[in-house]
Each structure stands twice: as C-alpha cells, then as structure tokens.
Amino acid sequence: MHTRIATTDGATPMTTKPTALDAHMAHHAATLALLARITEHLANHDDAPAEGVDWGHVGDIAATRGTLQELSDRLFSEGEHAEVACLRCPATFGTGAELATHYRAAH
User: Fold this and answer.
1) Residue 71's pLDDT is what?
2) Which among 46, 58, 92, 103 could disulfide-bond with 83, CB atoms 3.0 to 4.6 Å apart, if both were Cys?
3) What's residue 6's pLDDT?
4) What is the C-alpha separation between 74 and 70, in angstroms, rounded?
5) Could you tell me the pTM of the whole model?
6) Model confidence pLDDT, tens digit, residues 5-60
7) Closest CA relative to residue 15, chosen from 32, 3, 1
8) How far apart are the C-alpha atoms of 79 and 69, rounded to whole Å?
C-alpha cells in the first residue's frame, strides 16, 4: 500500500514509500489470513488416516503444536518469553540471568 500525493496542476501524482501504518496493516491482514487457513486445515483436514496412524503423523502434529506454542508464548509473554519478577522489589526482567544479576547487585 502506497500513499499518493495529490497535485493541483494536473500532473501525475507521486507515489511515496509505504508508511509504517500501511506496512503494519498489510502484515496484520496477511497474518489473519494465515491464521484462518491454519485453523481451517486443523479443523477439517486431519492428516492422519483413521487407521494406520504412525509415528510420522505424531511427529508432524507435535511439530505443528510446538511451532504454535512458541508463537503463543511470544505473543502472551509466557514460556521462555515470560518476564521474571523479583520477589523483593517491583523489578521485572526478561531472563533469569538478568534477575540473578539484579539480586547480586541490589539485594
């Protein structure tokens, strides 16, 4: 998506670079489309046959779940992306190592 600048002299309008908002909206729409596609596939197209499920099927769905779990953890600041809180003061940190450094320095 590009922004067009209007001209008053009837000349062909210039096209500018996309704005951050334009790019964000385009990525957001594409992300929603991917999510809908993934949801539809998981709901209606189970890759494992009713009979004959093997460990390859298990590995495939486990890998899919793992990838979605990583995304969920990042979006909701959970799992490895969770903030670590100091129990002695209101400070929070991105990693356990940062918390350990804080304890050594402040407590």
Assistant:
1) 95
2) 92
3) 60
4) 6
5) 0.62
6) 566 676 766 778 889 999 999 999 999 999 999 999 999 877 677 788 889 989 99
7) 3
8) 9
Report yes or no: 95 and 85 within 8 Å, Cβ to Cβ: no
Instruction: Kindly tell me the burial class for residue 16, based on how many C-beta atoms sit within 10 Å of its own C-beta (0-12, 13-18, 19 or more).
Output: exposed
Q: Which two tokens stand for residue 83?
A: 């903030």
Beta bridge partners, 4, equal 15
Q: Do 26 and 1 touch, CB atoms closer than 8 A?
A: yes
Tokens 């990838």 sit on residue? 67
3-state helix, strand, coil in the chain (%, to 5): 55, 5, 35
Strand, helix or coil for residue 74: helix
Q: In this predicted structure, what is the pLDDT of residue 73?
A: 92
Closest alpha carbon to 3 in 18, 21, 13: 18
